[in-house]
Amino acid sequence: EKFVKPAKESFEYFFKDCKAEECLMIGDRYKTDIEVPLKLGMNALLYDRLKKYDNIECNKFFDWKEIKDIL
Questions:
Q1: Taking the alpha carbons of 55, 56, 59, 63 in that order, is the dihedral positive or negative?
Q2: DSSP assignment of 6-37
Q3: Measured between alpha carbons, how far is 33 from 46 in angstroms, rounded to an integer?
Q4: Predicted model pTM
């Protein structure tokens, strides 16, 4: 079966091997990559290089060089 983001099934597929809270989704679009994982209890990290999502409350980073310090 194939599922496409942001369908929750596209994320839940991986929960057979781990729990939602053990997963981390990294993405650059809030609606497609971050919103559903957060609702499912996953950890999520928004790459917001252009600072388009200043009004959204979530974990963000703005430069890929930051990722090693975050993880």
A1: negative
A2: TSHHHHHGGGGTS-GGG-EEEES-IIIIIHHH
A3: 8
A4: 0.84
Q: Which position has the token pair 């950890």?
A: 43
Contacts of 68 (CB under 8 A, 6+ apart): none
19 φ/ψ angles, rounded to the nearest 5 degrees? -90, 155
d(CA 17, CA 63): 30
Cα 35 to Cα 33: distance, rounded to the nearest angstrom:
6
Identify whether the C-beta of residue 30 lies closer than 8 Å to the C-beta of residue 5.
no
Q: pLDDT tens for residues 11-66?
A: 888 788 899 999 999 999 999 999 999 999 999 999 999 999 999 999 999 999 99
